[in-house]
Amino acid sequence: MGDIIIKTSEEIEAMRHAGSILTKTLDLLAESVKIGISTKELDDIAEKFIRSHEGCTPGFKGYRGFTGSLCASINEEAVHGIPSSDRVLKDGDIIGLDCGVYYKGLHTDACRTFIIGDVPHEVRQFVKVTKESLRQGVKQVRPGGKIGDISAAIQATLERFDYEPVIECTGHGVGHNLHEPPEIMNAGVKGTGPTMKPGMVLAIEPISSMGYGDIKTAKDKWTLFTADKSLSAHFEETVLVTETGHEILAY
Which of 41, 85, 210, 245 is deepest in the core (most CB within 10 A)? Predict the structure, then answer.
């Protein structure tokens, strides 16, 4: 996958700015998600807000031909759902909104899963635990630590509640490219993998399933969904390895 890129202080400052705009974009989407809104409307909200900030553009739009500014993934869709005016949120849905901001030649990347309307307790717990798995993974980020520490923490948190990590979807380095080394699996062994060093920027993103973790690709060749049609949740943050620990740049 290549060498892990250490970011300069100037690049980190640009990513801080992009991360701030991305976090505000997801905050705005949190206010916008509701019964009856389409994923295309959410995409338009995100794109307009990102472009309203000088020098910022949606990092996903046009990436390998992707047509949206958001990946909008509903229920059994794990990731990469294409926004559409035909996809309207219903009472009881969950939706992962994954977004990126590109600024001064650098990417940031983050995702949150939202609950729509009246959702059963067990589904709310599932989403909460997936978010907690991200928190536990991020806690492992520090100089001298191993990438496998992140993976192991995510896996342990999910499996404690009998949820499955989606192994085929991974976190990654981020910055000059949307996907850079290292690959960050959502399951792994503590003490293994590349060593974290100050200046690395990581997109940590647990993707989980209430059933089995196997996924399939939809006919649109983008959307990944659980093979058993079980619900999937997704959270992601852009995290900088600092001299003393870590800094969350986008969440």
Answer: 210
